[in-house]
Design brief:
Blueprint lengths: L4 H4 L12 H4 L4 H7 L6 E4 L6 H12 L2 E6 L5 H14 L2 E6 L6 H13 L2 E7 L3 H4 L2 H4 L3 E4 L5 H13 L10 E3 L1 H10 L4 H13 L9 E3 L1 H8 L12 H14 L3 H13 L3 H16 L4 H17 L5 H12 L6 H14 L60 H17 L7
Parallel strand pairs: 1-4, 1-5, 2-3, 3-4, 6-7
Helix pairs in contact: 5-6, 9-10, 9-11, 10-12, 11-12, 13-14, 13-15, 14-17, 15-16, 15-17, 16-17
Protein name: Replication-associated recombination protein A
GO molecular function: ATP binding; ATP hydrolysis activity; DNA binding; enzyme activator activity; single-stranded DNA helicase activity
InterPro entries: AAA+_ATPase, AAA_assoc_2, AAA_ATPase_RarA/MGS1/WRNIP1, ATPase_AAA_core, DNA_pol3_clamp-load_cplx_C, MgsA_C, P-loop_NTPase
Length: 429
């Protein structure tokens, strides 16, 4: 039985890894480890199909170490013992341990000494946040790296390579793929290369040759094989981004009907991850301090939608879209942080004032660290007039309140009160 295309196209070395250049690109951490032959155990976490197994496979291929793959949830301690015995004989084994967050105490206790000795280099893979789900004993013996969703260009590159590769891919098939079909395949799988390659293989092998002896892959074939409809068959292929843009701008503009219309188009296309991400951005970028509880409700609705999946996910999504549309709007938070970032990027930073510096170490006093710091809680209103910004920008102002909701109106009042106190107006209310 032939293995799936995604399995066959796994990278044989770091140069063949698709995406993840922040980890495997020239001069980046994993490439440095491989080139220096100073590998250590690590945990890779991120969404499914983004390259965790591929990176482990590429590391093994680049170092010529033995490579074994186990699952922490389903494989037993005995399976780990077999890997350990192999490591004793061969020197080093790279073990990809999938679902590493489900490693129980018995298996963990067995693994720890082998990780300590470096005999087993464990590459744990998980979709869960390792800082929350991984046992501290394992976490302290590993480096943690985030694997990010692949871009459309990354996925298109991998698709083209699979279509051209005659040894491992689909190069023996006379495939002609329409540009719209390629574009949709790279978008509809939301950064999951495994899904994209699986959909491609199904499309190629289930489509008969036409009279020109070609296997022509159209948009409709890809829609069927990945079970995701394209937003529209537009000429330039921009509809995907146009709808997302219109969705956010309709909420920002408080047009409920338009926002629900664009939500429906995204729901019909099955783009749940994109909808959820965009709603969280909107909640903080456009609603922000105008109605902070709306952000919490958005997170709750997104979690419900992700748990439910379509078609039921449309219900919490519709509820939160209506909520965000009709909420007071404020972009003061994004404007403030962007103004602060602009100063940093222009070199306007300066030294941290001495009285704010860390003083919890021997010799700090001799360096004048922390001397003169006044603890605000010892003063009326938990406020004392002292300098916090560096001298270079001590008069900088970034936050400009917007009075579109009761919460930010209250923040504005407190902000103004503090500005008055700075000017010596002690009785300012």
């Amino acid at each position: 039985m032939q293995k799936p295309l995604a399995y066959r196209m796994r990278p044989r070395n770091l140069d063949e890894v698709v995406g993840q250049q922040h980890l495997v690109g020239p001069g980046k951490i994993i490439r440095r480890m491989v080139e220096a032959r100073m590998l250590s155990s690590m945990i890779l976490y991120g969404p499914p199909g983004t390259g965790k197994t591929s990176i482990a496979s590429a590391i093994a291929g680049s170092t010529n170490y033995a490579f074994r793959l186990l699952n922490a949830a389903t494989d037993t301690k005995k399976d780990l013992q077999i890997v350990a015995e192999e490591a004793k004989m061969s020197g080093t084994v790279i073990l990809l341990l999938d679902e590493v967050h489900r490693l129980d105490k018995t298996k963990q206790d067995f693994l720890l000494p082998h990780l300590e000795s470096g005999r087993i280099i464990m590459i744990g893979a998980t979709t869960e946040n390792p800082y929350i789900t991984i046992n501290p004993a394992i976490r302290s013996r590993t480096q943690i790296f985030e694997v990010k969703p692949l871009s459309e260009l990354d996925i298109q590159k991998a698709i083209k390579e699979a279509l051209a590769d005659k040894e491992r891919g689909l190069g023996e098939f006379p495939v002609v793929i329409e540009e719209k079909a390629l574009q949709h395949l790279s978008r509809a799988t939301n950064g999951d290369l495994r899904s994209a390659l699986n959909g491609l293989e199904l499309a190629v092998k289930s489509t008969p040759e036409n009279e020109d002896k070609e296997i022509k892959i159209s948009l409709s074939i890809i829609e069927e094989c990945v079970q995701r409809k394209a937003l529209t068959h537009d000429k330039n292929g921009d509809a995907h981004y146009d709808v997302i843009s219109a969705f956010q701008k309709s909420i920002r503009g408080s047009d409920v009907d338009a926002a629900l219309h664009y939500l429906a188009r995204l729901v019909e296309a099955g783009d749940l991850p994109i909808i959820c991400r965009r709603l969280m951005v909107i909640a903080y970028e456009d609603i922000g301090l105008g109605n902070p509880p709306a952000a919490a409700r958005t997170i709750t609705a997104v979690q419900a939608a992700e748990k439910l999946g379509f078609p039921e996910a449309r219900i919490p999504l519709a509820s939160v879209v209506i909520d965000l549309c009709l909420s007071p709007k404020s972009n003061s938070a994004i404007s403030a942080i962007d103004a602060a970032l602009a100063d940093i990027r222009e070199g306007k930073a300066g030294d941290v004032p001495d009285h704010l510096r860390d003083s919890h170490y021997s010799g700090a006093k001799d360096l004048n660290r922390g001397i003169g710091y006044q603890y605000p809680h010892n003063f009326e209103n938990a406020w004392v007039n002292q300098q916090y910004l560096p001298d270079k920008i001590k008069n900088a102002h970034y936050y400009e309140p917007i009075d579109t909701g009761k919460y930010e109106q209250a923040l504005h009042q407190q902000y103004q009160r503090i500005q008055n106190w700075k000017k010596g107006k002690k009785n300012a209310k």
